[in-house]
Design brief:
A hairpin with a 2-residue loop joins strand 3 and strand 4. The protein has 187 residues and is α/β, with parallel strands linked by helices. It has a single domain (3-173), classed as 3-Layer(aba) Sandwich (Rossmann fold), CATH 3.40.50. It is built from seven helices and eight strands. It starts with a strand and ends in a 14-residue tail after the last helix. Helix content is 43%, strand content 21%. The strands form two sheets. Strands 1, 2, 3, 4, 5 and 6 form a six-stranded mixed sheet that branches. Strands 7-8 form a two-stranded antiparallel sheet. Bound molecules: flavin mononucleotide.
Length: 187
């Protein structure tokens, strides 16, 4: 059974929950899935395909996820990869948020030139101003970041199912054994 790593960075936990939901869908599709926080302990070589996700903070992914991509650039260029970003900009301004997400992916590709994700996605995140230190809370009051949990579990799960299909096709093409066909449960 192909092994998939869903790895993520998260400051306040909402992206970790998105990663877990992506992992659940890939498991339901018949893959052997680990969901792990991004960091130097991650051994990408153990996996056949990879999903990397991170929230946008100041128009950039959290550094742990960027570092994981940089540190594994060569390996990532030779395996199926999907990327997702979470953020709040899109709640009020979808076009700007999409541009921001595309710039993030472009920057990742500069860090890891062979990176060619099969799919990328931007999801609304979750934001609670009370989590911020006092000075940032004041700054944020001016920035007007939308508050609350805006994650669409339907969008997240539907993207994860799509990624499962893309991974199955890619792994079958490269001859990785027993990649589940879409809709087929591995036994
Ligand atoms: C200081 C700060 C900066 C942020 N910058 C951005 C940003 O540039 N773009 C965006 O879409 N969301 C931004 N957000 C919203 C976060 O990406 C969002 O709340 C995300 O869901 C947090 O994920 P986490 O709970 O995994 O840390 C920012 C939030 C904070 C607190």
């Amino acid at each position: 059974m192909p092994r998939i790593l869903v790895t993520y960075a998260s400051r306040f936990g909402s992206t970790a929950e998105v990663a877990a939901a992506v992992g659940d869908e890939l498991t339901a599709a018949g893959f052997d899935v680990d969901v792990l926080v991004a960091g130097p302990q991650i051994q990408v070589a153990k996996y056949d395909a990879l999903v990397v996700g991170a929230p946008s903070y100041g128009r950039n992914w959290l550094p742990d996820a960027v570092l994981l991509v940089m540190a594994n650039a060569e390996r990532l260029s030779a395996m199926p990869v999907a990327l997702f970003t979470t953020g709040m900009l899109g709640v009020k301004n979808p076009k700007s948020a999409l541009r921001e997400h595309e710039e993030i992916v472009e920057t990742l590709r500069e860090h890891a030139p062979g990176l060619n994700p099969l799919s990328t996605a931007l999801f609304h995140g979750s934001f609670d101003r009370d989590n911020l230190p006092f000075c940032l809370r004041l700054l944020d009051r001016m920035a007007g970041t939308p508050r609350g949990d805006h994650r669409s579990w339907e969008a997240i799960r539907s993207w994860a199912q799509h990624v499962g299909e893309l991974f199955a096709d890619a792994l079958n093409e490269t001859g990785t054994n027993a990649a589940p066909r879409p809709g087929e449960q591995a036994t």
